Amino acid sequence: MSSDEELHRGARILSALGDPERLRLLQLIAPGEICVSDLVETTGARSTTVSQRLRLLRDHDLVRTRREGKHIYYRLTDDHVVALLRSAIDHAVEVG
Questions:
Q1: The 71-76 sheet, strands edge to edge
Q2: What is the reported pTM?
Q3: 34 phi and psi, to 5 degrees?
Q4: CA-based radius of gyration for the chain
Q5: Nearest to 51 by CA among 76, 30, 31, 21
Q6: What residues have CB less than 8 Å from 76, skipping those under 6 apart?
Q7: Can you list the alpha helix ranges (DSSP code H) found in 1-95?
Q8: CA atoms within 13 A on the CB side of 71
Q9: Does an H or E element contain 69, and which?
């Protein structure tokens, strides 16, 4: 049985995944590292909006960053994030 703290952290992670645009960012990041400017260009969203979404994903340990000069690169934290993303999308397709 999971502890109350583990359940709380799990609920926070699921909450962070509860936005289609954050899921889209995770899908774009999943194949490998990508910089913020590429995410902005691909999504067509404003850089401040993308940065806010990425900050929330980072705060919930779903993505990690690496700085190279002026660029910040994002990658998924680990394979658990990939599994969460795949499971959520696969389930949505199945029940949809």
A1: 34-35, 71-76, 63-68
A2: 0.92
A3: -150, 145
A4: 14
A5: 21
A6: 26, 29, 30, 62, 63, 64, 82
A7: 4-16, 20-29, 36-43, 47-59, 79-95
A8: 11
A9: none
Q: Which long-range contacts (CB under 8 A, 24 or more apart) does 32-35 make?
A: 32/75, 33/66, 33/73, 33/74, 33/75, 34/73, 34/74, 34/75, 35/71, 35/72, 35/73, 35/74
pLDDT at 96: 79
pLDDT per residue as tens, the chain (96 positions): 899 999 999 999 999 999 999 999 999 999 999 999 999 999 999 999 999 999 999 999 999 999 999 999 999 999 999 999 999 999 999 997
Contacts of 60 (CB under 8 A, 6+ apart): 12, 13, 16
Tell me if 23 sits within 8 A of 88, measured CB to CB: yes
Residue with tokens 């998924």: 76
For residue 86 the two structure tokens come to 């795949």
Polymer length of the chain = 96
